[in-house]
């Protein structure tokens, strides 16, 4: 079928029960946090987070939000995912000057962004590690590394599926080494080979392109698929994505606070 995220012992125990333990972010837990299929979520990348949506998981911009924003969400019982761009350079980020010109490719259609040469693991590994350190330092539970499918696009580099597989697995290891969960963003063709490396999936527009069934390996593994549509009305995809076990909603393309969940 197809269709269109060192405390005193007593306090640590309390936080663990609330789902906000620092142990999860410090790598002390034997397994990373894995949101279950059907988990409701909010995705807001436009500006500082609006904490008023009553859902258990928030996915927010790692640079634009502060540790206090994450702490506020934790206080309300939320898990919080740190959005960072892993596959493209962004001129407007504070670390943009750390990326050498040799790894910058074609524009990717978003203002101020250019694809990265993901073959250069030697260059990109420390840069991505620093971003994930930022996420951990702010108290996030997980990371959403964006643009993990450059090999399917015109990047300016001769990227292959093997290059993408190596890069995506490096990204997953960097997150797990820091006690962070990590989501696979899109890259549907490689899901069968990457589902064991990632803790959940984030997908855009699988219903519009009739690809949602390709995400079922995550659901079968007990891992959430956090899914959004932009153009397709809820009544045209919600029934199907519910049957598939996806956590679906409609959002505006700028990813502000507005949402219409299934």
Describe this structure in words.
There is one protein chain. The protein has eight helices and twelve strands. By secondary structure, the chain is α/β, with parallel strands linked by helices. Strand 7 (142-146), helix 5 and strand 8 (181-185) form a beta-alpha-beta unit. The model is unreliable at 1-29 (pLDDT under 50).
Jot down its keywords.
262 residues, alpha/beta, 9-stranded mixed β-sheet, 3-stranded antiparallel β-sheet, globular
Helicity range: 25-40%
Oligomer: single chain
- Stretches where pLDDT falls below 50 for ≥5 residues? 1-29
Number of helical elements: 8
The overall pLDDT average reads 90
What's the N-to-C terminus distance?
19 Å
Report the biggest beta sheet as strand number plus sense, adding barrel if it closes: 9 strands, mixed
Radius of gyration, in Å, reads: 18 Å
Q: State the strand order across the main sheet.
A: 1-2-3-7-8-9-10-11-12
User: Structural class given helices, strands, pairing?
Assistant: alpha/beta
Into which percentage range does the β-strand content fall?
A: 15-25%
Shape: globular
The sequence of SSEs as H and E is HHEEHEEEEHEHEHEHEHEE
Q: Can you count the beta strands?
A: 12
How are the SSEs ordered, and which strands pair?
Elements: H1 9-18, H2 22-26, E1 41-44, E2 57-61, H3 67-75, E3 79-85, E4 88-90, E5 104-107, E6 113-116, H4 121-137, E7 142-146, H5 161-177, E8 181-185, H6 191-194, E9 200-204, H7 216-220, E10 225-229, H8 238-244, E11 247-250, E12 260-261
Parallel strand pairs: 1-2, 2-3, 3-7, 7-8, 8-9, 9-10, 10-11
Antiparallel strand pairs: 4-6, 5-6, 11-12
Helix pairs in contact: 4-5
